[in-house]
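Notes from the 1:1 (GR / supervisor)

We went over the backlog. Supervisor wanted to see one worked example end to end before approving the batch request, so GR pasted a single chain during the call. The sequence is below; no edits were made to it. Supervisor asked that the structure be written out right there so they could see what the output format looks like.
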Amino acid sequence: MEFKNAWKVSNVDEVFKYCESYKEFLSEAKTERETVEYFLDHLKGNGDIKTYNFKGKSLVLHRKGKSDIRNGFRILAAHIDAPRIDIKPNPVYEDTDLALLETHYYGGIKKYQWVTKPMAIRGLIVKKDGNSLKVNIGDVQGDPVFTFTDILPHLARNVQATKNISEAIQGEKLDLVFGHIPLKTEDEKIKEKVKTNILALLKEKYNIEESDFLSAELEIVPQGPALDVGVDRSMVGGYGQDDRVCAYTAVTALMDATHVEKDTLVILFDKEETGSDGNTGAQSLLLEYAISTILREYGITDYTSIREILYKSEAISGDVTAGVDPNWKEVHELKNAAKLGYGIGISKYTGSGGKYSTNDAHAEFVAKVISIFESNGVAWQVAELGKVDEGGGGTVAKYLSKLGIDTIDAGTPLLSMHSPFEIASKVDIYMTYKGYKAFIEAK
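Structure output shown during the call:
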C-alpha cells in the first residue's frame, strides 16, 4: 500500500492562505486560557455555534444538525494544553546576585531542549480581592525575555557530560533567570538586594506582588511567533502545535461547514498532557455535563435516552501523531508510520506495548471515516506512534469511547513533538481541516 503525496493534489495558494491564519493563532494563543479566549472572540456574532466555557480552560462548541438529535452527535475532540514549564507558588529567590524563579515542568518534556532559549511568561494572577490580572511578559514588542541557563562545555565533564541525557538537566535546575540589578540602599538589614529590587519593579510595572504568585497560573513558554520553515515555506514551526493544530482545524471546520448533518460538538479539553485529570480534563464529567445540558434544550432529560444518544454518536479524537524524522527512522515501522506531506494521519489505536491504554477503533468506523475522507478529496495516511516496543502514547480517545461513542484518532503529523519548536507540514494542516470539515458535513 502506498499513500499519495498531498502536495500533488492540493491548491498550494489555498493551503498557504489557510496556514497564515493558523500561524497568527499559534502565535497569540500560547496557554489554555488564551486559546479559549481566542476562539470565543472569533466566534462572536456567529449565531450558528453555541459555546460552553468551562473554567476558562476548556471549551465546548455546539452546532445544530439537520437530522434528529436522537440519531447522535458528531464530535471533534482535541486538547489545548501543551507541555511547558510552570512557576511554583513561592518562586522568587536570590543567589550570587541573580534573581531567579523556581519552576515545575508540565507534561512530557526533554528538559535539555528548554535551556538557553528566550522564554516568555504568560498566564493569570488572581488577587486577594478577587480581581484578576492577565500576564504576558516577553511576547509584547519591546518586552524583556527570560531564559534557563546551561553549564558551559568546558566545565561539564563531571557534572553533566557523563550522565544520561534525561539526567543532564535536572528539574530543580530549571530556574528562570529573572533579574540582576540590586536595590540602591545602604540599609544593611536588607540582605537580598537584587530580589528586593526585582519585587519593587514587578509592583511598579505590572502591579504584581510576591504574595500574588501563591494563587497564580503562570506558564513559561517559548518566546516569539510561529514561523515558516524551509526555503519553500512549506512547513510551520512553533510552540504548542501539540495539540492546538487540531483544535484550530476543528474549530475552523465547524465554522466553515456548509452542511451539518448531525448535531456537532467541538470539545477542547485541558490537562491531556498530564493524564486528563482535573475538572477540565477528559476524565472529568465535563463532556457528560455539556451533552446533558444541550439535550435538556431538546427536552431530553432521562438517563436512558442520553445513554442511547451517546451510543449512536461518533467522534474523531483530533490529536497529533509522530511524523517520520529522517534522522531517527529506526524508531518507526515505516509501513505504518506517518510522513510529513501525506495528509491527515489516521490512528486506529494509540497506547503502548500490547495496545495498553488505548481506544482501538472498530473496523466499521475506520472504514466509514476513510470513505468520508476519500469521497471528499482528503489526503490521508495511516499513523502508528512508533514501533510496538519502542514507546508509545495516548490521547483522549479512550475517554470518549468509555461513554459508548465510536471513536478514532486522526490528526496532523509533527516533527520534534513536545519541543519548544514543533514542525508541521502546511499541507497536512490543511488536510486535517479538510478532513474534519468532511466528517461534519457527511450524510
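Supervisor's comment: The chain has two domains: 6-82+239-441, 84-222.
Batch request approved.
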